[in-house]
Amino acid sequence: MRFGLKLWSTNQDVMQKAADLIKQDVFQYVELTPIPNTDITPFLSYEIPYVIHITTERHGLNIADKQKEDFNLKIIDDCIQWADQLDAKYLILHPGFGLIDDAMDFLSLIEDDRVLIENMPKVGLFDEQMVGYSPEQIERLMGSKFGLCLDLNHAVKAAVSLKLDYKLFIKDFLKLNPLMFHISDGNLNYEKDEHLAIGEGKYDSEFLMKCIESTPNKNVTLETPRSNLKSFDDDLKNLRLLRRHIL
């Protein structure tokens, strides 16, 4: 199993620590989100494996909004350039909120086969109707061009909204052969996105880890919180807790 550290392009000051952990084989890659108007140069000096997480709704991206087509294309093109320069294996993309048909129309403009569509909760933090919350929607969005990044936390949240057994729901996602995973903890009585530390919520972490182990592509990024943005101590603690469930 390969574990990834989640970073943003504003986290230049901890890159040496991240690179050291990868050199020690504690983590195996960095999942990096380029923030608009930041510089790639500091990241080019580290010869480490990267995955790019395309800039999200937090900075205005929403591929399901027809009015933002030019803006969305520019954001994604910038992230593709980061991926090219950093030799990133994948680019992870949120399918946004609104209408799935509008998201699919936009995806017809993207030809990069490194793109992985990330599944979403059904309801956004501000009550948005998210796109890509079910295996059926994700399969439509993937088509024959794209892969899947299975966010296990998002899948649980969608199952809560739909009043479904989250374990059976995740097993349906596994049939789509995810190439990457995101993991965190959360509560089972709340449908909106949470990113809790492992053990702070109610998810069955042993089950989630077995799901990852059951696939050929065991790449999993920790999406757990850091109490100190200049330290990876919380990540190391969460990693130890997850490793207990690896056979």
Automatic annotation (TrEMBL):
This is TIM barrel protein. Residues 48-239 form the Xylose isomerase-like TIM barrel domain. SUPFAM superfamilies: Xylose isomerase-like.
